[in-house]
Each structure stands twice: as structure tokens, then as C-alpha cells.
Design brief:
alpha+beta; Endonuclease I-creI; 4-stranded antiparallel beta sheet; two-stranded antiparallel sheet; 6 helices; 6 strands
Length: 141
């Protein structure tokens, strides 16, 4: 048994295709994130904290867990605090040495496009990196 499509169905499909996509709403996390300070390139022999702050301000970002979702899905939602710093291959050694001198353990670097991404785990590490960036940087505003 086959059915023939009527003209009205075609009109409905055309109307759906013409509908404009809804604008994406920003989450509470995106709205509250302050702008990162801008840190100038560290001079030779600069402190390790200045080196980390420079690379983080240039190409780093933080991943923060959603508190509401963590309460709701306590057994399945396992995301934690993570800071990621993207650097070129020739800068990776300098960044890892600076982190080692500061006593911070970095995760295993992985390739992302033409850079390497170096993850740092934990809320305390995130707070430290953010504090160094604020100490050595100037406000972008």
C-alpha cells in the first residue's frame, strides 16, 4: 500500500527549512568568566611563574565542572578542574621545565592542530596559574 504526498506536505517542509536557527544562549559559566590579563613575554632568566603566566595568557584556557550537573548526575558526571596551555613544539620543553621548577605536575601533552596542549589538573593548580597571570599581566580593558 502506497500513499501519495500532497502539496500541503511540501509546503510544511519548505517552511521548516526557512525557519531561522535560534541564537545560542550563553551558559552561566560563560557569562561570569572574566577576561584574562595580558602578560608580556618573559625576559631571559625570568621566574618560572612568569613563564607559565605568559604561555597561559597567550594560549591557555580552563575547564570548570558544572556544579548543578555534578549534583544531579553524581555517579556519571566526573569532570574536574583542568587548565590547558597550548604551545608550539619548541616551547614545550621550556614550559615543562618551568612547571617542574614550581613543583607542578603536568599531564601528558597531546597534539592539537599544529600545537601541543599541556594539561594541568586540579582546582588549586588552576587558582595558582590564574593568580600568576593576574600578578604579571595587565588588564585587557
Amino acid at each position: 500500500m502506497t500513499t501519495k504526498s500532497t502539496g500541503s506536505n511540501k509546503k510544511k517542509v519548505a517552511k521548516k527549512a526557512e525557519a531561522k536557527p535560534a541564537a545560542r544562549k550563553k551558559s552561566a559559566k560563560e557569562k561570569k568568566t572574566p577576561a584574562k590579563p595580558i602578560v608580556s613575554a618573559p625576559p631571559p632568566g625570568a621566574s618560572p611563574a612568569h613563564v607559565v603566566a605568559y604561555y597561559f595568557s597567550r594560549s591557555g584556557y580552563c575547564r570548570v565542572p558544572d556544579v548543578k550537573r555534578r549534583k544531579k548526575e553524581s555517579r556519571t558526571y566526573k569532570m574536574g578542574y583542568e587548565t590547558r596551555i597550548s604551545v608550539y613544539k619548541n616551547e614545550l620543553k621550556e614550559l615543562r621545565q618551568a612547571l617542574k621548577n614550581l613543583g607542578l605536575l603536568a599531564g601528558r601533552p597531546y597534539a592539537k592542530k599544529n600545537k601541543f596542549c599541556l594539561p594541568l589538573y586540579g582546582k588549586s593548580v588552576m587558582d595558582q596559574v590564574w593568580a600568576w597571570t593576574c600578578d604579571y599581566g595587565t588588564s585587557p580593558e
